[in-house]
Amino acid sequence: MKRWQYTLGFVAVCAALLFVLFKGFGRDPHEVPFMLKGKPAPAFTLRALDTGERVSLEELKGRPVVLNFWASWCGPCQQEHPVLEWGAREFGSQAVFLGVVFEDTEDNAREFLSRMGASFPQLVDPRSRMAVDYGVAGVPETYFIDPNGIIHGKHVGPIDPQTLTTRLRQLTAQATAAPAPESP
Question: Which of 22, 94, 131, 173 could form a disulfide with 136 if both were Cys (CB 3.0 to 4.6 A apart)?
Answer without folding.
Answer: 131
